Amino acid sequence: MSTILMYHYLGEAPATADRHAPLYVPDQDFEAQLRHLTRRMIRTVSPEEYDAGLSRNTLDGTAWLTFDDGKLDNYEVALPALAAAQQRATFFVIAERAIAGESGYMNVKMLKEALGAGMSIGSHSLTHPRLARLGDAELRREIFDSKAMLEDALGVAITSFCYPYGNFSQQVVDLVQEAGYRLAVSTIRDNANREPDRFRLKRVMVQPGRTGLSFSYLFSGLYHWVHERKNRRRWMAKRSAD
Ligand SMILES: [Zn+2]
To answer: 2-241: which CATH number, 1.10.10.10, 3.30.1330.40, 3.20.19.10, 3.20.20.370?
Structure first.
């Protein structure tokens, strides 16, 4: 079993965060989580290692750390903490914002530095729309152009994709595959994935305060048991509503 952890922002949630407050993990929680991984000898993997391991079913005892949106705190807080702990993570960036150097986001120079420190970069689309709502031409731009632009700017292959808002359809999945990505992560919650899941990989959202036993729980069979059932119920409810 390999858990894919989903982070967004590190630090205290600003007063304006409102319903997004659970997306902010305090710095000290993140550092405690990295120590936990090291202590338990859980190896953090790159998308390439995850890809190979998923095919061969050799991901036991590993974790894939993912950060969505590519905000500046990822560079200022996560990167030094990861480097100090000798752990790795993947930053899913919004291509247009990163390449334009939009304020509050990691720019190309920072992303290159992250690559140099052993981190990976993935595409979180071009402009962060709800992909399932887009027409074919726009959809292709978001999926194909974000990959090409990031590859041009960074000089590395971009092999993983992250659906904005966890929003996708079968058409979106097909285009992600056609564009040459090897993996795509969703916001469906679970800590176990198998080969057929590679373009709708389930993740575990790390919320503030998850340290010690409550962090361990995210890697457990119990977490999987609970969420597999929840996902099935949600899927059945959706089917009967369609
Ligand atoms: Zn996002």
So the answer is: 3.20.20.370
